[in-house]
Amino acid sequence: MGLENCANCGQLFVKNSIRDICENCYREEEAAFEKVNVFLKKRENRTASMVQIINETGVEEALILKFIKKGRIRLVQFPNLAYPCEKCGRPIKTGKICETCMKELRTDLDSFEKERARQAEIAEREKTYFTMDETARRKK
Ligand SMILES: [Zn+2]
Ligand SMILES: [Zn+2]
After folding, report:
1. SS3 track for 37-98
2. Centre of ligand 2 from the C-alpha of residue 102, in Å
3. pTM score of the predicted model
Protein backbone atom coordinates (compact mmCIF):
# COMPACT_ATOMS: atom_id res chain seq x y z
CA MET A 1 0.00 0.00 0.00
CA GLY A 2 1.20 3.47 -0.81
CA LEU A 3 0.16 6.73 -2.33
CA GLU A 4 -0.02 6.84 -6.07
CA ASN A 5 -1.38 9.04 -8.83
CA CYS A 6 -4.61 7.82 -10.32
CA ALA A 7 -3.99 6.50 -13.85
CA ASN A 8 -7.16 8.21 -14.96
CA CYS A 9 -7.46 11.62 -13.27
CA GLY A 10 -3.99 12.02 -11.75
CA GLN A 11 -5.21 12.53 -8.17
CA LEU A 12 -3.25 11.02 -5.33
CA PHE A 13 -4.91 8.01 -3.80
CA VAL A 14 -4.06 5.04 -1.62
CA LYS A 15 -3.15 2.27 -3.99
CA ASN A 16 -4.27 -1.27 -3.45
CA SER A 17 -3.19 -4.17 -5.58
CA ILE A 18 -6.18 -4.49 -7.89
CA ARG A 19 -6.76 -0.89 -8.91
CA ASP A 20 -4.60 1.69 -10.58
CA ILE A 21 -7.29 4.34 -10.36
CA CYS A 22 -8.79 6.27 -7.46
CA GLU A 23 -12.09 5.52 -5.74
CA ASN A 24 -13.93 8.23 -7.69
CA CYS A 25 -12.73 7.03 -11.05
CA TYR A 26 -13.39 3.45 -10.03
CA ARG A 27 -17.00 4.28 -9.23
CA GLU A 28 -17.36 6.14 -12.50
CA GLU A 29 -15.87 3.23 -14.36
CA GLU A 30 -18.22 0.78 -12.69
CA ALA A 31 -21.20 2.98 -13.52
CA ALA A 32 -20.01 3.12 -17.13
CA PHE A 33 -19.60 -0.65 -17.19
CA GLU A 34 -23.12 -1.09 -15.86
CA LYS A 35 -24.45 1.12 -18.64
CA VAL A 36 -22.62 -0.83 -21.33
CA ASN A 37 -23.56 -4.11 -19.73
CA VAL A 38 -27.25 -3.26 -19.54
CA PHE A 39 -27.18 -2.07 -23.14
CA LEU A 40 -25.48 -5.22 -24.39
CA LYS A 41 -27.76 -7.52 -22.43
CA LYS A 42 -30.71 -6.54 -24.55
CA ARG A 43 -31.25 -9.07 -27.26
CA GLU A 44 -31.72 -6.43 -29.96
CA ASN A 45 -28.32 -4.97 -29.12
CA ARG A 46 -26.39 -8.15 -29.73
CA THR A 47 -25.47 -6.90 -33.18
CA ALA A 48 -24.52 -3.41 -32.02
CA SER A 49 -21.31 -1.90 -33.32
CA MET A 50 -18.79 0.01 -31.21
CA VAL A 51 -20.15 3.34 -32.51
CA GLN A 52 -23.67 2.38 -31.53
CA ILE A 53 -22.60 1.48 -28.01
CA ILE A 54 -20.72 4.76 -27.64
CA ASN A 55 -23.69 6.74 -28.92
CA GLU A 56 -26.26 4.89 -26.85
CA THR A 57 -24.39 4.72 -23.55
CA GLY A 58 -22.22 7.83 -23.74
CA VAL A 59 -19.26 5.75 -22.56
CA GLU A 60 -16.01 6.52 -24.33
CA GLU A 61 -14.39 3.98 -26.60
CA ALA A 62 -11.17 3.73 -24.56
CA LEU A 63 -13.14 2.61 -21.54
CA ILE A 64 -15.18 0.09 -23.49
CA LEU A 65 -11.94 -1.31 -24.92
CA LYS A 66 -10.58 -1.57 -21.40
CA PHE A 67 -13.59 -3.64 -20.34
CA ILE A 68 -13.14 -5.85 -23.37
CA LYS A 69 -9.43 -6.35 -22.74
CA LYS A 70 -10.11 -7.22 -19.12
CA GLY A 71 -12.57 -9.83 -20.30
CA ARG A 72 -15.54 -8.12 -18.71
CA ILE A 73 -17.26 -7.89 -22.06
CA ARG A 74 -17.08 -11.13 -23.98
CA LEU A 75 -16.88 -10.49 -27.68
CA VAL A 76 -17.86 -13.96 -28.79
CA GLN A 77 -21.48 -13.07 -28.19
CA PHE A 78 -21.34 -9.94 -30.30
CA PRO A 79 -20.72 -10.42 -34.01
CA ASN A 80 -20.11 -6.74 -34.74
CA LEU A 81 -17.73 -5.95 -31.92
CA ALA A 82 -13.97 -6.11 -32.09
CA TYR A 83 -10.92 -4.24 -30.85
CA PRO A 84 -7.77 -3.26 -32.68
CA CYS A 85 -4.76 -5.57 -32.98
CA GLU A 86 -1.89 -4.06 -30.97
CA LYS A 87 0.44 -4.22 -33.95
CA CYS A 88 -1.56 -3.34 -37.06
CA GLY A 89 -4.93 -2.13 -35.78
CA ARG A 90 -6.96 -4.75 -37.63
CA PRO A 91 -10.09 -5.68 -35.66
CA ILE A 92 -9.73 -8.82 -33.55
CA LYS A 93 -11.88 -10.63 -31.02
CA THR A 94 -9.40 -12.54 -28.92
CA GLY A 95 -5.80 -12.16 -27.80
CA LYS A 96 -3.65 -9.09 -28.26
CA ILE A 97 -2.66 -9.30 -31.90
CA CYS A 98 -4.31 -10.61 -35.05
CA GLU A 99 -3.49 -13.88 -36.77
CA THR A 100 -1.45 -12.21 -39.51
CA CYS A 101 0.75 -10.43 -36.96
CA MET A 102 1.00 -13.64 -34.98
CA LYS A 103 2.32 -15.44 -38.07
CA GLU A 104 4.73 -12.59 -38.80
CA LEU A 105 5.96 -12.69 -35.25
CA ARG A 106 6.59 -16.40 -35.56
CA THR A 107 8.49 -15.91 -38.83
CA ASP A 108 10.54 -13.13 -37.22
CA LEU A 109 11.40 -15.43 -34.37
CA ASP A 110 12.34 -18.17 -36.82
CA SER A 111 14.70 -15.96 -38.82
CA PHE A 112 16.15 -14.64 -35.59
CA GLU A 113 16.93 -18.18 -34.51
CA LYS A 114 18.45 -18.96 -37.91
CA GLU A 115 20.56 -15.82 -37.83
CA ARG A 116 21.83 -16.74 -34.39
CA ALA A 117 22.72 -20.24 -35.55
CA ARG A 118 24.55 -18.75 -38.55
CA GLN A 119 26.53 -16.37 -36.33
CA ALA A 120 27.45 -19.21 -34.02
CA GLU A 121 28.63 -21.23 -37.00
CA ILE A 122 30.80 -18.37 -38.28
CA ALA A 123 32.29 -17.87 -34.83
CA GLU A 124 33.01 -21.57 -34.64
CA ARG A 125 34.65 -21.57 -38.08
CA GLU A 126 36.81 -18.55 -37.21
CA LYS A 127 37.94 -20.24 -34.07
CA THR A 128 38.99 -23.28 -36.11
CA TYR A 129 40.91 -21.15 -38.63
CA PHE A 130 42.62 -19.35 -35.84
CA THR A 131 43.66 -22.58 -34.19
CA MET A 132 44.96 -23.97 -37.49
CA ASP A 133 46.87 -20.77 -38.03
CA GLU A 134 48.42 -20.96 -34.63
CA THR A 135 49.45 -24.56 -35.10
CA ALA A 136 50.96 -23.77 -38.47
CA ARG A 137 52.92 -20.87 -37.06
CA ARG A 138 54.23 -22.91 -34.17
CA LYS A 139 55.51 -25.56 -36.51
CA LYS A 140 57.75 -23.08 -38.27
ZN1 LIG B 1 -9.04 9.18 -10.48
ZN1 LIG C 1 -2.30 -7.36 -36.59
Report:
1. HHHHHCHHHCCCCHHHHHHHHCCCHHHHHHHHHCCCCCHHHCCCCCEECCCCCCEECCCCCC
2. 7
3. 0.66
